[in-house]
Structures are given as C-alpha cells and as structure tokens.
C-alpha cells in the first residue's frame, strides 16, 4: 500500500489553457495499492484536473507529441518516462514547445 | 508683438524643416533598397571568409570593450571576424540576434526570410522601420545591419528555406540560428544542420514565454532526439493568434546571440543538452536538463533514416509559414460573405449577429450591434451565456415580421472560430436547448469586413 503523496504539477507553454489557465497545482494523490508513477498520474490528471479536449493533452496512455515532461527540472526520458515512480514533493512540469518567433 | 512674430516664424521654420527631413528619410529608405541587387534565382554564392591574423586600429577601438574580456580577447575577436552565421527568420528573434552579431563583429551573416515587412511586425521586429513596409524582410534587415556595421558582410536570401535549398545553404555557414516561426521549418533546419554537421542555436517565443537551447553540438541531442514526432497541427499556436510581447522575443533573440557568439568565438555554448525556459510574467528563468543524444534518433542516431531532406509540410501536416490557417468545417450553404451580410444589414432584415471572439479582442474593436459570447463559453455550454443567447433569439422572434426567417450570423476575427460556434449552435438547437433558428457564419470574419466593407474598421 503506497501512502498518499503530495506533488506539485505545473503546466506551461500554453498547456495551462487546457486547465482553465491555472499553471500551478498542488496535488495530493490518495494512497493506493500500486505505487504512483507518471502513467497513473496522467490518468489522475485526466479525471481530476483536465477541463476540456483531452486529446490535446493525452494520446493513448502518454502525453501528445510536442509536450515535454520534466521531473524535478529534468527531462523524463532520463528517469524512465511513464514508469518513473513519484516521490513525495516531486515537481512535475508539462510544457508545450513553442514555435513562434 | 515682435517676440510673438518670432515665435510664429520659428514654428513655421521648424515645420518646414520637419517636412524636409521626412522627405529625406523617405528618399534614404528608397535609396537603401535601390542599393540592393534583385533576388537571385539561386542562393548567392559565397566564398569562405579568409582567415585574419590581426585586428586593425579601427577594429581595436570599435571592439575595445569586449576585447579586454580575457575570455574573448583578440583571439576570440579574430575568430568572430572569420565566422559566418545563417539566420533563419528575420522576425522577432532574428532581428535582435542579427543586430548583436553584427555589432559584435561577426564576419558574415546570411539572412533568410521569404516574408515582407508589415505594420504589425514593427512592435517586435526591431530592424525594420515604417518606411520599409511591404519590402522583403531579408533586404530590410540587411540594410539596417549595414548601417550599424559596414564591415559585416550581410547576405540576404529573400526566399523560403526549402528542402531543395537548405542543405546547400547551411553548408556555407559555420553556425545556424533557428529564428523561424513554424514547425516544418524547425524540422527542416534541424535535419539540414545534422546532415551538414553544424551546431543549431534554436529559440522560440509566444505570449509571455520563451525557450532556447542548442542542438547538435559536440555530441549533444538534436531537435528530433527531443521531439521525434511533430505536434498535431491543431495544437500549434502562432503569434498572430496567441499574441506575443516584443520584449520577450527580444530577450530570447539576445540569449540566442550570446550562444552563437560563444560558439563562434570558441568559448562553447551554455545550453547544449539543456533548455532554458523564460517566464516573462513571473520574471523567472528556469534551466532544465534535456535527454542525451538518442542512439535511435531518425536524424542523428546510429542508423539514421533521415539521409536526405524530406517534405516537412507533409511530415508536420501544416504549412511552413505562421500565417493563420483557414478551417473548412461548414458547407458553403452554411456560410455568407461580408458583402452578403452588409446587404442584409442595410436591408434592415431581422437577425442576430453573434461575435464569438475572446473579450480581449472585443476590447480592440467590435461591431456595435453584435451580441458578444466568447466561443469558450459556448464550448462549455456556459448556462449564463446560453440564457443570454436564448433571450436574444426570443426577442428577435418577437420583433421579426411574420414569416421572416429567424437567423443568427456568427462572426469572429478570421472565420475559423465562427465555424466552430455554428457547429455548437446547431447541436444546441437540435437538442432543443435553443429555439429553432438558422445559423450561418461570416466568411473571413471581421478582418474581411475591414478589408472589403469598412476601411475605417481596425485590423489586428
């Protein structure tokens, strides 16, 4: 049984527009059988935070192309992507790449 | 009395000279453009810059403040003088970037931009002036830079970077700066840099945010390592739709110039393998660590599949410009032109005009008789907004002559959101949330209204 976790979830680069413009969310994830990883964090975000147009954030079981996931300021690719197990007080940032110039 | 007369005479003289000055400025702008050769069919042939053994007395004076920096010194300045930089995009990022590179004494700047200067560019594209509106940005930038530093060789390319020309062009330069404004060009520039073995300093900006990193430098990741798949076209926002503050592109362009200078002078960049995020609203910089080069990357991996430049517009499902897209969600019968709507308005036929733009755009300009409900409220089926709309429809029906059709015309800035709104209103009437009513949208929106019907209506 994994204990409840408190994590900071942030959306930037325009992703926040899918979350009513709110960039920072202090989130408490309830205790559950399985450890919390990014895969089930995405499901939790989809069910609890996402206001509209899910497909602009999630495709399949991962984030859509063009969104970079950062775990404590490091590219999630360095930490196992969807399989990274969340720790209490982690900072998870979802950032859309910008293309304007 | 005499004093009063002198004031009047001086005022007249000042006015006369101001007029003369303004006419001189116009002639200067025209002459600067005259100086430039017409756009060649093929990229200008440029020979390698000769190596330089020493700085002249004038150069020492000009660059003295940076020459006394031990990290740069004479050695670094000599390297800058023989360095060439290709700048892809002479817009909000490219202008400040090119300006600082020219000021610092970089030997040659290639300036790529297919677009022309528009008034809405001037708030952030600081090399272009009012007098050059309508002229090619590449030439306008080159003219500005020559005035700043005549020793820097500026090579304008007033054409789009294409898969046919990119590789040849990139190979002629030492460092490449991606200052473009669209996804296909970003993949094109990346692949050309990987194939040609050139470092790529890449920045972007939108609204109050900016991002900068260095790709394909000394074994670091390339753009495709980090973004193997392009984003869905409908998730990409351009500066015209999303807005951008000029200072934000300015800050990013300057950071880009710094990275280019450090690479060109041999100091090495700071953001290879990391991405700097700038949040101008919070005044916050955050540097995050990116992944390493991916062995399975399609461009720079061990067995690359990108061995040639491809069709990047097809790969990304979008065009290589930042111009607004035109959606086609409705049939022609569900749409009217601005000319049709103008006739309808003049005839006094009862109808409801629904403006679905965000409040911030309605604050800029509006048609006074329109009811305003933002598309976002309709998408959410906001009860307050639906009540307002329902009342407006019922009121319209009361006022309408017997037998007159009950119609709603939906308008927005360009005619994309209005189509989405028509789809929603059709659903709402079918579900009997709203009274039966015919809903159509106005093709081209308020910008078409400004262009074709009312020349005094603002364009933005």
TrEMBL record, chain A:
Positions of modified residues (1-thioglycine): 101
HAMAP family for the chain: Urm1
Subunit structure: Component of a complex at least composed of URM1, CTU2/NCS2 and CTU1/ATPBD3.
Similarity remark: Belongs to the URM1 family.
CDD domains: Ubl_Urm1 (cd01764)
Pathway noted in the entry: tRNA modification; 5-methoxycarbonylmethyl-2-thiouridine-tRNA biosynthesis
GO cellular component entries: cytosol
Subcellular location: Cytoplasm
Record protein name field: Ubiquitin-related modifier 1
TrEMBL record, chain B:
Disulfide bond annotation, renumbered to this chain: 316-324
Coiled-coil regions, chain positions: 7-34
GO cellular component, one term: cytosol
Pathway field: tRNA modification; 5-methoxycarbonylmethyl-2-thiouridine-tRNA biosynthesis; Cofactor biosynthesis; molybdopterin biosynthesis
Sorted UniProt keywords: ATP-binding, Coiled coil, Cytoplasm, Disulfide bond, Metal-binding, Molybdenum cofactor biosynthesis, Multifunctional enzyme, Nucleotide-binding, Nucleotidyltransferase, Transferase, tRNA processing, Zinc
Cofactor dependence: Zn(2+)
Annotated localization: Cytoplasm, Cytosol
GO MF, one annotated term: molybdopterin-synthase adenylyltransferase activity
EC class: transferase
InterPro entries: MOCS3/Uba4, Rhodanese-like_dom, Rhodanese-like_dom_sf, ThiF/MoeB/HesA, ThiF_NAD_FAD-bd, Ubiquitin-activating_enz
Family to which the UniProt record says this protein belongs: In the N-terminal section; belongs to the HesA/MoeB/ThiF family. UBA4 subfamily.
PANTHER family: ADENYLYLTRANSFERASE AND SULFURTRANSFERASE MOCS3 (PTHR10953:SF102), UBIQUITIN-ACTIVATING ENZYME E1 (PTHR10953)
Biological function: Plays a central role in 2-thiolation of mcm(5)S(2)U at tRNA wobble positions of cytosolic tRNA(Lys), tRNA(Glu) and tRNA(Gln). Also essential during biosynthesis of the molybdenum cofactor. Acts by mediating the C-terminal thiocarboxylation of sulfur carriers URM1 and MOCS2A. Its N-terminus first activates URM1 and MOCS2A as acyl-adenylates (-COAMP), then the persulfide sulfur on the catalytic cysteine is transferred to URM1 and MOCS2A to form thiocarboxylation (-COSH) of their C-terminus.
Quaternary assembly: Interacts with NFS1.
Protein name per Swiss-Prot or TrEMBL: Adenylyltransferase and sulfurtransferase MOCS3
Organism in which the protein naturally occurs: Carlito syrichta
Lineage: Eukaryota, Metazoa, Chordata, Craniata, Vertebrata
């Amino acid at each position: 049984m994994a204990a409840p976790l408190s994590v900071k979830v942030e959306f930037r680069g325009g992703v926040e527009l899918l979350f009513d413009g709110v960039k920072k969310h202090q989130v408490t994830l309830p205790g559950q059988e399985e450890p919390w990883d990014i895969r089930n964090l995405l499901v939790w975000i989809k069910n609890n935070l996402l206001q509209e147009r899910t497909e602009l954030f999630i495709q399949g079981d991962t984030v859509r192309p063009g969104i970079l996931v950062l775990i404590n300021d490091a590219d999630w690719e360095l930490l196992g992507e969807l399989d990274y197990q969340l720790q209490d007080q982690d900072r998870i940032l979802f950032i859309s790449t910008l293309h304007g110039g | 009395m005499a004093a009063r007369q002198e004031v009047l005479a001086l005022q007249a003289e000042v006015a006369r000279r101001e007029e003369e000055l303004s006419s001189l400025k116009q002639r200067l702008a025209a002459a600067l453009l005259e100086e430039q050769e017409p756009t060649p069919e093929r990229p200008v042939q440029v020979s390698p810059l000769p190596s330089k053994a020493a700085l002249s007395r004038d150069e020492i004076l000009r660059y003295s403040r940076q020459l006394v920096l031990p990290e740069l010194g004479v050695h670094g300045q000599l390297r800058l003088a023989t360095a060439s930089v290709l700048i892809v995009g002479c817009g909000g990022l490219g202008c400040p970037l090119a300006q600082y590179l020219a000021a610092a004494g970089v030997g040659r700047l290639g300036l790529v931009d297919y677009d022309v200067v528009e008034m809405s560019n001037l708030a952030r594209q600081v090399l272009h002036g009012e007098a050059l509106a309508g002229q090619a940005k590449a030439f306008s930038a080159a003219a500005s830079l020559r005035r700043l530093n005549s020793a820097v060789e500026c090579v304008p390319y007033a054409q789009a970077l294409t898969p046919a020309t990119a590789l040849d062009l990139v190979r002629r330069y030492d460092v490449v700066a991606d200052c473009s404004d669209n996804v296909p060009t970003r993949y094109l520039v990346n692949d050309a840099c990987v194939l040609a073995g050139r470092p790529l300093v890449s920045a972007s900006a939108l609204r109050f945010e900016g991002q900068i990193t260095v790709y394909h430098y000394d074994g670091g990741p390339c753009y495709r390592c980090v973004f193997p798949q392009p984003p869905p076209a409908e998730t990409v926002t351009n500066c015209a739709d999303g807005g951008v503050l000029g200072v934000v592109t300015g800050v990013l362009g300057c950071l880009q110039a710094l990275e280019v200078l450090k690479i060109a002078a041999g100091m090495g960049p700071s953001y290879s393998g990391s991405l700097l995020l700038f949040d101008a609203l919070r005044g916050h910089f955050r540097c995050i660590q990116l992944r390493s080069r991916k062995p399975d990357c399609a461009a720079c991996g061990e067995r690359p599949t990108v061995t040639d430049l491809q069709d990047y517009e097809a790969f990304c499902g979008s065009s290589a410009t930042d111009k607004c897209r035109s959606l086609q969600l409705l049939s022609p019968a569900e749409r009217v032109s601005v000319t049709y709507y103008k006739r309808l308005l003049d005839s006094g036929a009862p109808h409801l005009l629904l403006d679905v733009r965000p409040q911030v755009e309605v604050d800029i300009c509006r048609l006074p008789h329109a009811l305003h409900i933002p598309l976002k409220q309709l998408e959410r089926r906001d009860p307050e907004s639906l009540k307002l709309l329902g009342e407006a429809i019922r009121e319209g029906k009361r006022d309408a002559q017997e037998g007159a059709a009950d119609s709603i015309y939906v308008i927005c800035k360009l005619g994309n959101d209005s189509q989405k709104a028509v789809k929603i209103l059709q659903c709402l009437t079918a579900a009997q949330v709203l009274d039966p009513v015919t809903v159509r949208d106005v093709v081209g929106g308020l910008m078409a209204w400004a262009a074709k019907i009312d020349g005094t209506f603002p364009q933005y």
